[in-house]
Amino acid sequence: MFGFTRQEKSVIIFLIITFTIGTGIITIRKLSYRNTIEQFKSRYSEMDKNFSEISKNDSLFNIQKEKDANQTINLKININTADEDELIKLPGIGPVLSKRIVSYRKSVGKFKKTSEIINVKGIGKKKFEKILPFIYID
């Protein structure tokens, strides 16, 4: 065969077989890797769906949600006596606005109407409407 000795033929056949086996192993690994990724994706999406359903129906989650809602409903703050920490509890009022409210109250005096809080820089109609259910004057 093509003028090769018996030993050369054996080496060539060995190399061809080794190359074929190596190529087959690489191909199988690539295919199994793709399958593993697909399995992971499907399992992950299934677990994600299960977790979403559980968290929607979880009584602890619902209790915390109701507790938060009740806290905001029961919150009534006297804007003439509240300090900065209390004012921060109002929706849309942060540390800066609470300081402005307190300093406005110190410089101008107590609020006579709740609507006077609009005179504080940073509080407009929308923010006033948002906090109105939670404020009062005594």
List the helices and strands and how they pair.
Elements: H1 6-57, H2 59-74, E1 77-78, H3 84-87, H4 95-108, H5 125-131, E2 135-136
Parallel strand pairs: 1-2
Strand content: under 5%
Let me know the average pLDDT.
84
First-last Cα distance: 111 Å
- Classify the helix fraction into a percent range: 55-70%
Write the H/E string, N to C. Answer: HHEHHHE
Fold-level CATH name of the largest domain? DNA polymerase, domain 1
- Domain count: 2
Biggest sheet, open or closed, and with what strands and sense?
2 strands, parallel
Number of strands: 2
Quaternary assembly:
single chain
Report the CATH architecture of the largest domain. Answer: Orthogonal Bundle
- Overall structural class, as computed from helix and strand content, comes to mainly alpha
Total of helices? 5
Nearest-angstrom radius of gyration?
36 Å
Short structural description:
It is built from five helices and two strands. With 138 residues, the chain is mainly α.
How would you portray this structure in words?
The protein is mainly α and 138 residues long. The chain has two domains: 6-57; 67-136, DNA polymerase, domain 1 (Orthogonal Bundle), CATH 1.10.150. It has five helices and two strands. A two-stranded parallel ribbon has the order 1-2. 8% of the residues are buried. The mean pLDDT is 84.
Task: Identify the notable features of this structure and list them briefly.
5 helices; two-stranded parallel ribbon; single chain; 138 residues; 2 strands; DNA polymerase, domain 1
